[in-house]
Design brief:
The chain has 7 helices and 14 strands. It is an alpha/beta fold and 357 residues long. The strands form 2 sheets. Strands 1, 2, 3, 4, 5, 6, 7, 8 and 9 form a 9-stranded antiparallel beta sheet that branches. Strands 11-10-12-13-14 form a 5-stranded parallel beta sheet, with helices on both faces. Helix 2 packs across helix 7 (335-356) and helix 5 packs parallel to helix 6 (282-304).
Length: 357
């Protein structure tokens, strides 16, 4: 397998970071917050790929997917082995940057770097520390917060493709939650959005990936989440579960999240208008499912005292949906649709921060 065979396999998103991001704290909730112009460690967004053998993997970093310009990477390796490092420049030239051992290293990168690759031990991935040193992220009430995402195909990385494999230009950096995170200077921690899943419904290709199962896997070995985005539930209705059952499971999921991550702030999101991939006689059923699920999400948010952010009125409607899906007949938002969702999320998070004071 070539080192630049990036993302041809199923992507496993790894959101890794270093230590606490700031000594400045928001008094009302004790979470990290940056001051204007502050240098903060910004977590690196990377992808894990299989490599030769079972003990070694490729950790790939795309410059265009990072929250700040990628001029250097600070990484801490925990495995006592040689970690090969290489970079690919904008012109496609590949450069070998050396072999590093166990410990913390700052890797200076060539100007115009497009991607960085590292050969790492499979067993050290979850404890791998990597960040962009001396970065200046956006300053907001959420600066430096570690974000985890729980959702389905509207939020999943696997559907997004990558910079290399998606000719339409839809990539991780265009996902709605990424746009919101970048706007507010958040760090990306764990992505637990899996296509075809629901609160209790699992994806056909694997077990253990429903919301009820994933909701306690929103951390890494070195970091707990500060905030959690949840956009989930409509696939349960598509699968034939009654709304009363889904509501009960959703409450159980929220209770588990609260128990496992008592310090995290939970944001619930409603579904946007869904594309016309399911038409004809099934269309009214689809719209009913979205309406029922959104009503349930709003009700549960009020019941638990959680912020609910409206994506249904983000701008996608029956009249214009064709311009916002990935391709004709698809139900999933493309780059333009994700942008509308992202802007609605940004506006909702601003309102939530204002209400919190």
């Amino acid at each position: 397998m070539k080192k630049r065979n990036c993302f041809c396999l199923l992507l496993l998103a790894v959101f890794l970071a270093l230590a606490p991001v700031s000594s400045v704290h928001a008094e009302e909730n004790g979470k990290s917050a940056g001051s204007p112009g502050a240098f903060l460690p910004v977590s690196v967004y990377g992808h894990v790929m299989a490599a030769e053998g079972n003990d070694i993997v490729y950790y790939m970093i795309e410059a265009e997917e990072q929250m700040c310009p990628l001029t250097a990477v600070e990484v801490t390796f925990t495995a006592d082995m040689g970690h090969s490092i290489w970079a690919v420049c904008a012109n496609g030239e590949q450069m070998t940057l050396g072999v590093l051992g166990i410990g913390t290293h700052v890797i200076a990168l060539p100007e115009g770097v497009r991607e960085v690759g590292m050969l790492v031990g499979a067993g050290e991935v979850d404890a791998l520390h990597s960040n962009i040193p001396d970065a200046v992220p956006a300053v907001s009430a959420y600066t430096g917060w570690y974000l985890s995402v729980l959702g389905d195909s509207l939020s999943s990385v696997e559907l997004a493709g990558s910079l290399q494999s998606d000719t339409e230009g839809l990539n991780v950096a265009s996902k709605w939650w990424y746009l919101a995170a970048k706007e507010f200077g958040m760090n990306l921690l764990a992505d637990r959005a899996v296509g075809s899943t629901g609160v209790s419904v699992e994806a056909p290709e694997g077990a253990g990936n429903s919301g009820l199962q994933q909701c306690t896997r929103l951390h890494t070995a070195v970091q707990e989440p500060d905030c959690i985005f949840v956009l989930l539930g409509v696939n349960d209705l598509f699968a034939g579960r009654r709304i009363q059952q889904v509501e009960q499971d959703y409450r159980s999921m929220i209770a588990r999240i609260r128990s496992r991550y008592p310090q995290a702030e939970i944001f619930l999101f409603t579904y946007p208008y869904i594309g016309d991939g399911i038409g004809g006689e099934s269309r009214p059923v689809l719209e009913l499912c979205v309406t029922q699920m959104n009503d349930a999400i709003r009700g549960i948010a009020e019941e638990y005292g959680l912020a609910v952010i409206d994506l249904y009125h983000c701008g996608m409607t029956a009249d214009n949906i064709a311009a916002y899906v990935r391709k004709p007949g698809d139900i999933h938002p493309g780059r333009a649709g994700q942008a509308l969702m992202g802007q609605a999320a940004i506006e909702g998070l601003r309102k939530a921060a204002a209400l919190r004071g």
